[in-house]
């Protein structure tokens, strides 16, 4: 932790924040970005520490970057690069809600996916090409006790949301066990709903068609899935439901990564930072209810890290990733 001399008109005291005020009360962040070793997200977090309602208009900070610029082959280009990096970190920080405590069902869900290896920390290359410090795969929850915990977490999130629906729909393939298990978990909470799912290939004998289970025509349908990455699978499932005469009322997923859509390249400074979940909500006109968000996961890690250096390392890596790819919350 970095000592922060907090300068006032009459006195100077030392606190552990990571920045000190200079001039007309602008935080001077120390160490600086670049050669001094701090990341843009670190110095922005230090500047915002203790600010209950930060805004771009109220944020003023001074970040030392002189050595990184002076030692660069092209100082002008390096200065522009650092400026953009810091501005992106500011945009992302201002877009995020303050840390909050998590609900019991969210804690149970995170415990479950960590225990089963469905949620892992490390270095992972996503389909988008991004290098992510964490990876979620609901398919790893594949034993009786843990899958029951998974279904219960979905049921708790759905009940808490107050959604009104008749049928739970699971898109093939991961959605197939989800819709059945979530319907059973909801029944244990007194919420009775039918379930249905689709086949990848249409059946040309027997009852035929691509839909199995409850008749969705004219019914209010809740779609359940594990995660929304680009939103392609959800949109495809929506098309199937629309063709069958169903009324989609909401989507429930396990994890909202709260990151922008696109490829490996970071968003340009000033570009819209819209998440896949927000895009689905906008395009389909229905709410998306996650069991946990990335913000919830960070709250869990912060509560658990204490003296655990490894957990603290994971939390820092996730924050650095969010500083680059984090979506702006509406």
From TrEMBL:
Pfam family, one: Pribosyltran
Residue ranges occupied by any Phosphoribosyltransferase domain in the UniProt entry: 143-259
The protein's annotated pathway: Pyrimidine metabolism; UMP biosynthesis via de novo pathway; UMP from orotate: step 1/2
Class of the enzyme per the UniProt entry, highest EC level: transferase
CDD domains assigned to the protein according to its UniProt record, in alphabetical order: PRTases_typeI
EC number(s) per entry: 2.4.2.10
Sorted UniProt keywords: Glycosyltransferase, Pyrimidine biosynthesis, Transferase
Function field: Catalyzes the transfer of a ribosyl phosphate group from 5-phosphoribose 1-diphosphate to orotate, leading to the formation of orotidine monophosphate (OMP).
Subunit relationships: Homodimer.
PANTHER family attached to this UniProt entry: OROTATE PHOSPHORIBOSYLTRANSFERASE 1-RELATED
Family: Belongs to the purine/pyrimidine phosphoribosyltransferase family. PyrE subfamily.
The name this protein goes by in its record: orotate phosphoribosyltransferase
Organism: Aureococcus anophagefferens
This protein's encoding gene: URA5
């Amino acid at each position: 932790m970095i000592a922060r001399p907090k300068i006032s008109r009459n006195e100077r005291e030392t606190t552990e924040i990571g920045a000190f005020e200079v001039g007309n009360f602008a935080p001077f962040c120390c160490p600086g970005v670049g050669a001094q070793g701090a990341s843009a997200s670190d110095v922005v977090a230090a500047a915002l520490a203790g600010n209950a309602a930060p805004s771009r208009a109220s944020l003023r900070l001074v970040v030392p970057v002189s050595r990184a610029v002076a030692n660069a082959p092209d100082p002008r280009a390096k200065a522009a690069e650092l400026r953009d990096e810091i501005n992106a970190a500011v945009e992302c920080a201002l877009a995020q809600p303050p840390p909050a405590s998590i609900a019991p069902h969210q804690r149970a869900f995170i415990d479950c996916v960590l225990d089963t290896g469905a949620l892992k920390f490390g270095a992972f290359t996503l389909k988008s090409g991004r290098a992510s410090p964490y990876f979620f795969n609901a398919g790893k929850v594949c034993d009786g006790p843990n899958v029951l915990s998974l279904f219960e977490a979905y049921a708790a999130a759905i009940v808490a949301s107050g959604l009104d629906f008749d049928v739970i729909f699971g898109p093939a393939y991961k959605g197939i066990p989800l819709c059945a298990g979530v319907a059973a978990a909801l029944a244990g909470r007194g919420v009775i709903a039918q379930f249905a799912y689709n086949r990848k290939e249409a059946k040309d004998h027997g009852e035929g068609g691509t839909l199995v289970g409850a008749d969705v025509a004219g019914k209010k349908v809740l779609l359940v899935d594990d995660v929304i990455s680009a939103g392609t699978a959800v949109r495809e499932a929506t098309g199937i439901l629309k063709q069958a005469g169903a009324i989609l009322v909401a989507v429930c997923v396990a994890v909202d990564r709260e990151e922008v859509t696109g490829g490996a390249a970071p968003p340009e400074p000033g570009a819209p930072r819209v998440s896949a979940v927000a895009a689905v909500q906008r395009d389909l006109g229905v709410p998306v209810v996650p069991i946990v968000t990335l913000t919830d996961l960070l709250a869990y890690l912060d509560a658990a890290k204490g003296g655990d250096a490894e957990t603290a390392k994971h939390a820092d890596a996730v924050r650095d990733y969010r500083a680059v790819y984090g979506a702006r919350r509406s």
